[in-house]
Specification:
With 253 residues, this protein is α/β, with parallel strands linked by helices. The chain folds into 3 domains: 25-92, 2-Layer Sandwich (Histidine-containing Protein, Chain: A), CATH 3.30.1340; 99-168, 2-Layer Sandwich (Histidine-containing Protein, Chain: A); 173-246, Histidine-containing Protein, Chain: A (2-Layer Sandwich), CATH 3.30.1340.30. It has 6 helices and 12 strands.
Length: 253
């Protein structure tokens, strides 16, 4: 009997040793993940954020001042080697701003965004705010323009969340030619030249596969009609949709 027990012990011992050896690296890995997560979140903007590790999932809680900081914390956590998922429960705890006021602020900021880069007149981004949650729609000339509009909203205090529904216009040499020609034809016309003074370019020109749409705000119905006629005169345009609004009837764009 003694011999059998000893033999059994000898058989079980290697498995027990392997099990114990395997548990040590797992504990060490979890500890290392927590250390790396804490290190990557050791920034001033994340002072109100708490990060913990459950298995290979990073759990983020706490508060930040702007939505962009919440997004950045999530990105940093995902870049930690060994983290396979991120549960981002961070709350944006900045000041509460009325929706109408926040929308007006964002529309103005995004209107002047990208000024000096040559694409301002070709971006037509819409802004809708509900309960501090912002939805961006409309069209952007390129992915950089769309990302820039999202960044403006994400870094504005009072914004709780940003939903990006901006459509990036397709890349096309023909569309680029139409855009440039339309801008010259519209902004260069005597009665519309006054709009060229504003760096925000209040008449926005969006083109997709030869189809041109006008967005923005003008001072009168006459200006709206003239802009539509000028757009229709551009060679290569298949269709023109005139969505310009008259300032006396609407303040939005």
């Amino acid at each position: 009997m003694l011999t059998l027990l000893l033999a059994g012990s000898l058989v079980l011992a290697p498995g027990a040793l392997q099990s114990r050896a395997a548990s040590v690296p797992l504990q060490a890995d979890a500890s290392q993940l927590q250390t790396e997560l804490s290190k990557t979140l050791n920034k001033k903007q994340f002072s109100g954020v708490q990060g913990s590790v459950q298995g290979t999932t990073a759990l983020l809680k706490g508060t930040v001042d702007v939505f962009d900081d919440k997004e950045e914390a999530g990105k940093r956590a995902r870049h930690v080697k060994g983290i396979t998922a991120v549960d981002n429960e961070i709350q944006v705890a900045g000041p509460s701003v009325p929706d109408a006021e926040l929308q007006q602020k964002l529309v103005k900021a995004i209107s002047y965004d990208r000024v000096g880069y040559g694409t301002t007149a070709f971006n037509a981004v819409s802004v809708v705010v509900h309960g501090g949650n912002v939805t961006l729609g409309g069209h952007a000339y390129g992915p950089v323009d769309a990302a820039s509009a999202v960044a403006v909203a994400s870094n504005t205090k009072g914004v709780r969340d940003v939903i990006n529904e901006i459509q990036v216009d397709p890349t096309s040499p023909m569309d680029d030619r139409i855009r440039i020609q339309a801008a010259r034809t519209i902004y260069g016309f005597p009665s519309l030249n006054k709009y060229a003074i504003d760096p925000a370019k209040p008449i926005r020109i969006s083109v997709q596969n030869g189809n041109l749409t006008l967005y923005g705000v003008v001072n009168s119905q006459s200006d709206k009609d003239v802009a539509g006629l000028r757009a229709n005169s551009v060679p290569g345009v298949f269709k023109v949709v005139n969505n310009l609004q008259v300032a006396t009837s609407s303040e939005g764009r």
